[in-house]
Amino acid sequence: MSNSRSPSPDFASLSIAEDLVPIRPAKPAGQTSISFSSLLDPPLLLHEDLKEGCGGQLWPAGMVLAEHLLRNVEELRGKVVLELGAGGGLVGLALALALSRSPKAISANTEHPILTTDLPQLLPLQKQNIELNNLSSSIISASLPWGSPLPDTIPEKYKRPDVIIAADCVYFEPAFPLLLETLAELLQRPDKNDDKGYDPVCWFCMKKRRTADMRFVAALKKKFRVERIEMPSMQNKEYGNVFS
User: Fold this and answer.
1) How far apart are the C-alpha atoms of 66 and 94, rounded to whole Å?
2) Please, which pLDDT band fits residue 5 given cuts at 50, 70 and 90?
3) Other Cβ atoms closer than 10 A to 4
4) DSSP secondary structure string, 129-152?
5) Closest of 152, 94, 86 to residue 115, by C-alpha
6) β-strand 228-229 against 201-206: which pairing, if any?
7) Cα–Cα distance measured from residue 231 to residue 114, given in angstroms and rounded to the nearest whole number
8) Would you state the pLDDT for residue 95?
9) DSSP secondary structure string for all residues of the chain
């Protein structure tokens, strides 16, 4: 698989005038307490702030994916986890909080097991939420723009993570191919003579908003083996679908 990547497209020509689609008032910045159906006690604290974009607030698919992972936390124990498009870090923070409270998770091999990533302007918010929950030994953050080679700022162990998590990353159609490129790079298998036991998985949660979103799922299935995860506990919450 080639490591070459084309530059991100210029999205300026895709902007829509305010007189056609009025901009909704921004949600005020503030702090939210989230227990995920009492799976976290004490709950996760999340500061939300939209000043750097829509990734700064809590989105429904993130709630769904976080709750699913919390109910299956044993599968993630001791794994190297990378979160794509983390925004304020909801999913990664919830997982880190659960693992940090489990004596079984504490070992030399699990320090900083989770890396949350997004565009550079969202990293201060991620770091604020890491500090807010006293998780500086369990989770770190770094910039990872989609569609470009993995930057040197990504620590080496996260360039081949055991688990990738991504919630509500499907909302801007021109970015779909860029996201697919980054997933392909992170999930690529090693050479046949190198680390035969490496078998990464991605937990991906999205809310279907438009027909284009399902085209993304179709493209995903062409590149990877995709399974839809049934979640009986969430069946009355039409927030999103989880794939692995």
Assistant:
1) 6
2) very low
3) 7
4) HHHHTT-TTTEEEEE--TTSPPPT
5) 86
6) unpaired
7) 24
8) 95
9) -----PPPPP-GGG---TTTSPPPPPPPPEEEEE-TTTTSSSPEEEEE-GGG-GGGS--HHHHHHHHHHHHTGGGGTT--EEEES-TTTHHHHHHHHHHHT-GGG-SGGGSS-EEEEE-GGGHHHHHHHHHHTT-TTTEEEEE--TTSPPPTTS-GGGGS-SEEEEES--S-GGGHHHHHHHHHHHHPPPPTTS-TT---EEEEEE---SHHHHHHHHHHHHHS---EEP-GGGTT-TT-EEE-
Q: Which of 46-60, 79-93, 149-163, 168-182 is predicted least confidently?
A: 46-60
Indicate whether 14 pLDDT > 70. no
Cα gap 139→130, rounded to integer Å:
7
- Please tell me whether the peptide bond between 42 and the residue prior to it is cis, using omega within 30 degrees of 0: yes
The two structure tokens encoding residue 64: 């769904």
Confirm if 165 and 92 have CB atoms less than 8 A apart.
yes
Residue-level pLDDT at 141: 96
The answer to which of 102-116, 142-156, 209-223 has the lowest mean pLDDT is 102-116
User: Which residue in the block uniquely carries the two structure tokens 């700064």?
Assistant: 56
Residue-averaged pLDDT of the chain: 81
Does this model's pTM top 0.85? My answer is no
